[in-house]
Amino acid sequence: MQMRVAIRDISLFERPVQFVRPFRFGVVRVDSAPQAFVRVELEIEGGGTATGASAEMMMPKWFDKRSDRTPVRTIDDLRRSLAIARDLYLSDTGFDTTFGLHAARITSQVRACAGEDIPPLAACFGPAEIDKAILDALLRGLGLDAFKGLAANVAGIDNRLTPDLADSVITQFLAATAPKPRIAIRHTVGLDDALEGPDGLVAVIRGEALRYLKLKLGGDPDADIARLEQIATAIGAAANSGASTDGVSLDANEQYADLAALSTLLDCLDSDSALAPIATRLIYIEQPMPRDTTLTCTLGSSARYAMIIDEADGSYDAFQAAKDLGYRGVSSKACKGLYKSILNAARAAAWSSNNQLFFVTAEDLTCQAGLGVQQDLALGALIGVSHAERNGHHYVDGFGAAPIAEQERFLAAHPDLYVRTPDGIRLATADGSLAISSLITPGFASGVHPDWSVLQPLQSTTRKIPQEQFS
Questions:
Q1: Bridge-based pairing state of the strands 28-44 and 387-389
Q2: CA atoms of 414 and 412, how far apart (whole Å)
Q3: What pLDDT does residue 354 have?
């Protein structure tokens, strides 16, 4: 049941988000970041008009970690990605499927961004946000939720960007999708996060009944091993009090320079008894080496531990290339593109056999309350994940700067996902998982939109940004 739409308007906004505690990954320490918002107005062929929306954090130094790029410059590049994408999506007012709109523009988007020295991962940010808003509008106009709509392939997803997949494989994958009622939280432990005390890891595992952890690595094997030994002790302490941890993932965020450095870490996981609480629960290691190295280096014996790509996932052929080098999986993030996540999940299902399992994981710490966390949760549920990196709420005070009235509307529309506390409206995380039943509503996973009247227009960008120091 493919439907065609024509875009009539795209508006871009942002809102500052201040963290209540800093988060550090690699060499970057983040205290605040802006959140981008997109509003799309479109016409459904033969079906009237509809409005859709999306939201996503513009995180510094994740999409582009080059040493000569300041945090401010990397955020500015994400704004440029959005602005370039807006112009491309408005350049043709004819009707097409929502996937067709994306497929017809993604190559031009990457090329235009390359002309401004914006790398592919950041280039994809603009289309990713606009695509979510377009899908939201289509589904609202049809009165369908994301799961029924995509199972029927109203977006018209086909294999023009993934010729290795037959169209029949894609449609069969979509038709078989069925959301789980809850998705477990995989709690990220940053490099500066406390392990002890009232806000430490042990207390959080106990207080939120967490079953999954994601541990950040810094790229120095000795320092990482020492940190992991401390975390292993914390996992053991939590287990002794009845709070068991079922699975652990490791994320290096491109910090391991090469296979030799990575091998040092892996050898310790093999042999260090102090790391046994982690090694016996380890489900995969995420993006250990820089993205450029990743797609030129065969894993060899390092593939004894399941590895996935994340930052290296800058194109539709990246997962296929990584598979040939020994990688087993790829991350899903709405900020990298919902269609890429869906098609990669179809690939993983098609490639898997009794002898080897390929998979897609859900990785995004930065999703915040409201549209951002809801749309990414729905995407994860759609492709079948059972747990997701999902504790951005530990770093931001609830809905942050969103007006109280807006927060109340989200609580009313999604009472299973949010809860009223003495400190304000928060995600309902007490049992270590998040409910998605209320996300099964007309549109892309949200019964309400943000208050557009209080959002700031997306800041205009400049290419002359002063260099600054950061840690």
A1: unpaired
A2: 6
A3: 77
